[in-house]
Specification:
By secondary structure, the protein is an all-alpha fold. It has one domain (3-67). The chain is 76% helix and 0% strand. Helix 1 (3-24) runs antiparallel to helix 2 and helix 2 runs parallel beside helix 3. It starts with a helix and ends with a helix.
Length: 70
């Protein structure tokens, strides 16, 4: 696994852990935001791993999901 893909995964895991902590404190809007960010980073890592290109600068999860279908 290349370094950038590993960074996407590590960052995604960090965001998910942050969401878990926010959930415990009742910060539900931030939980949603951090979960979205975590999924986005995983999809970008997948994009770079599969397509060997830099992930697009978008926050659209549906777009990223479809872009990963080659």
């Amino acid at each position: 696994m290349n370094k950038q893909v590993a960074n996407w995964i590590k960052s995604s895991q960090y965001d998910l852990k942050t969401a878990e902590h926010m959930l415990k404190t009742g910060r539900y809007i931030y939980v949603l935001f951090m979960c979205h960010l975590s999924v986005e980073k995983l999809l970008k890592g997948l994009y770079e791993a599969i397509l060997k290109k830099i992930a697009p600068k978008t926050h659209n999860l549906i777009y990223l999901l479809n872009a990963n279908r080659h």
